[in-house]
Amino acid sequence: MKKLIPNPPAKAKRDMPALLFDLDGTLTDSVYQHAFAWKDALEHVGVNIPLWTIHRQIGMSGGLLARKLLSLSGKRLTVQLIERVKKFHTKSFKGLEASVRLLPGAKELLAELSRLGVPWTIATSGSLVDVRSSLKLLGIDKSAPIVTRDSVEAAKPNPDLFLAAAEKLGVAIEDSIVVGDSIWDLLAARRAKTFGIGLLTGGYGREELEHAGAYRVYEDPKQMLDNLEDIGIS
Prior knowledge:
Rossmann fold; DNA polymerase, domain 1; five-stranded parallel sheet; 43% helix
């Protein structure tokens, strides 16, 4: 399959919404690798947090996540400690990258959206160094207008990532739909004043995603691909 590049706005079908995708847990099966990497990073600084507690925070920006987990431990928060944990997480995740796989239908979904002329892009809380291998797995061209944590002032649950992604595509945020696997994605979508679609691939339940604002919930990208007409895409 050729490299995927989101459609430029001039070629987009204006009667169809743009889709703004989260990456980890939405297109790639990488949530648990990140959870293990955060656990490893926390233990490196003498903090032992149950893995399920860490999992519940995946989807936040790295800085917010590190701050939240360290505060649960009672550790005194310092900028240096937070940065130390973030850096060790990146190092630990690199050792687990080889086990990351695409979720069912992920690449096919993006390819079909491109074929239909539907604008789409990826907005991720990960830094560019953390997501390069996942973008390569998806076959996304390096010229694609991807938005990462490095590009915005604040990441999820703040709406900045999705606002920047819509701007990069040249579409109004109101004409966009956020697709994510965590409550943090959907809370960010609500704060951006746009619709959200939830996927069950990140470990959150259907009711949790709906409660956070999802107006559609699918098992994975493949089920979403099979039901594009439900969101006004055909």
